[in-house]
Design goal:
The structure is a homodimer of 386-residue chains. Chain A is an alpha/beta fold and 386 residues long. Helix content of chain A is 48%, strand content 12%. The first copy, chain A, has two domains: 166 residues, Rossmann fold (3-Layer(aba) Sandwich); 202 residues, Dehydroquinate synthase-like, alpha domain, CATH 1.20.1090. Chain A has 14 helices and eight strands. In chain A, strand 2, helix 2 and strand 3 form a beta-alpha-beta unit. The longest helix of chain A has 23 residues. Chains A and B meet through strand 1, helix 7 and helix 8 of A and strand 1, helix 7 and helix 8 of B. Chains A, B: Keywords: Oxidoreductase.
Chain lengths: 386, 386
């Protein structure tokens, strides 16, 4: 097991009706900016509930933070935060609204030239405007971690940021929200969380028995509850396991003491930036060919995954490992997710080359758990995913 | 799944050499009271390392906090905290030293008549003197939670306390400490952590798939690493899994959304107070007869435990459940732990009656996950454990 440090101060309020406790989690006398997305919260009743809970506070609203939160839109919200002297941010939405809020939380206190520095220079935010979240779409885990991903349409870039000040003060998770989420978003959420675990698990063994089992627990649970969630999102037992699995998948418990990969995300972000493919779908496209391309490095963990998660007990290590990749593809496909890049775009050659070029331009440091994947490896992985 | 709230702000520094980072975790200008136990840290080199790390601070020492931390001894430390205007407590030891430090942290700020109120009146501490820990004995999980158990010899009482202010600011966990722990303490540590999980898992099903699997992960890991830890405590892989399992067993992740029991601890504390039996051993004595006495309520979870943790796949639910209790006893016995009360004391009748009488005197509220165990049930469980 590798050395690690861990601290996660986010307070979780989980279950039916937790929105009733919203007001007591926000500092009294706070001037609140309420941030949300495309307006779905106005259809499912959450907007009214939040309005009601926020009555004790002075509240300004900022809607329109869509999937892949856009820098230029967020800069409009930043202007409001500064001019209106906002003291608390409340994100009501999924990962995109929460990520956008994290950017604003950091940007509000950033003294440098332009807040875009936070992304390009990977500045860890140690001082930020406090914020809380009301999660309406389980997927990214952003509700209990300190990371965010921001997109800039102008430059077709999608970059990550974070820092110890960017944990939500609190997150309210009521699994009942799941009943009004469209099937496409449910499938994306399950796929996203599943890939978050794979990135922290399909690497190489370091004798971290407990962390391996914890990762397998999340994968097994997602596999178990996926059919019920897709068939009947008002099934509260399935919904609550889905929601908590998404949070546990990326709240920092799973990667403690183990190597992590994240190459699938790095490549996936480029596919979203270039072609607008849903984030979760880019992961389902890239993960299988990434594992096949880097098979030697990953086969021991893949075989363990095959045995413990997919009950594949026959065959050699390599055979079990290969079979686990097929099972993973079938799992995504079973959710209605296409796992081939050709099902989304026919311009794969240019895609592979563009991604390779971009990584090179940004100052290449090597991807994957061994930091040894070259731009050429990335090009091959993208080609294989076609 | 039941509703839950969760927040755990403790910072964990885990791995080889983390003691080097001690000084930067303590506020500069702190006046530190260094608390420790029976002096084992002076034999294994940790005392010197802590001394070295604490050079930037003004430090006063208080040793002699033994197993089952004693109220009258802690009151001497409280006197020093007040007279010397101590601003930070550092616990270096196992669960007893850390629990004693938590009591002191709360008592230092307590304005009531006597700090014993914190235990008898179950006062939740919301304001306390800050403290950190250096863990030298994995077992209780106290290094990452906000609970403590204090003993008072004068009245033969052992009572629990806690509160949101009683999380350690940081805990340093270096698995290398395990190599100098005597076998008896290693066996106790494994047994203690195992029973912590059972108290949060062997109840009744509520459809919390992820939490069940997380609990099973800790049990499976403890079973896997126990032989290696007992045979060679310098095996770092086994030691690190042992140490992290003990922390994860009681840091608040496992009980989220599920019913918990804790009757085994309630009864076990009385056995320690009456007969001085090691805490972990009281759990190994009581758990099997508790599960047999409350078999109907617990058999579904026991059967799940049988299947997933002990690979018992044949037989009826009841047969599997019964077999899992036998397996649990054998596991403790394999660590050199006697699981029968008669192996510790021959006065079992008086013991059972005394415990029943004490619970009655204290204002009975019912034990177990259904809060329906009567003093008579407790008497029977203790008799069965003979």
């Amino acid at each position: 097991m590798k050395n690690f440090k861990y601290q996660n101060p986010t307070k979780i309020l989980f279950g039916k009706g937790q929105l009733e406790n919203l007001a007591e989690e926000i500092p009294s006398n706070a001037k609140v900016l309420l941030l949300y997305g495309g307006g779905s919260i106005k259809k499912n009743g959450i907007y009214e509930q939040v309005q009601e809970a926020l009555k004790p506070f002075e509240v300004i609203e900022f809607g329109g933070i869509r999937a892949n939160p856009e820098y230029s839109i967020l800069m409009q919200a930043l202007e409001i935060i500064k001019s209106q002297k906002i003291s608390f941010l409340l994100a009501v939405g999924g990962g995109s609204v929460i990520d956008g809020t994290k950017f604003l939380s950091a940007a509000a206190f950033y003294k440098g030239e332009t807040p875009w520095d936070l992304l390009t220079q990977k500045i860890a935010s140690t001082n930020a405007l406090p914020f809380g979240t009301v999660l309406t779409l389980p997927a990214t885990g952003s509700e209990m971690n300190s990371g965010a991903v921001i997109t800039r349409a102008e430059t077709k870039e999608k970059l990550a940021m974070g820092g110890p000040a960017l944990f939500p003060k609190f997150s309210i998770l009521d699994p009942q929200v799941i009943r009004s989420i469209p099937p496409r978003q449910l499938a994306n959420g399950i796929t996203d969380a599943f890939n978050h675990v794979l990135e922290q698990y399909i690497t190489y063994p370091v004798g971290a028995s407990l962390q391996d089992r914890m990762a397998e627990s999340v994968l097994q649970t997602l596999i178990e509850i996926a059919p019920a969630v897709m068939q009947d999102p008002s099934d509260y037992t399935a919904a609550s396991n889905f929601m908590w699995s998404c949070t546990m998948a990326l709240n920092g418990i799973l990667p403690l003491g183990v190597p992590t990969d994240w190459a699938v995300h790095a490549i996936g972000h480029e596919l979203t930036a270039l072609h607008g493919i849903d984030h979760a779908r880019t992961l389902a496209i890239i993960a299988p060919s990434h594992y096949r391309h880097n098979f030697e490095s990953k086969k021991d963990k893949l075989a363990q995954y095959a045995e413990r998660v997919w009950n594949i007990t026959e065959g050699t290590t390599a055979a079990k490992a290969q079979e686990s990749i097929v099972k993973t593809e079938e799992f995504f496909q079973g959710l209605g997710i296409n796992t081939k890049l050709s099902q989304y775009t026919d311009n794969y050659e240019r895609t592979a080359q563009t991604i390779m070029k971009r990584f090179t331009e940004r100052g290449w440091t090597g991807l994957g758990e061994n930091k040894n994947l070259t731009p050429t490896d990335v090009e091959k992985i993208v080609e294989m995913a076609y």
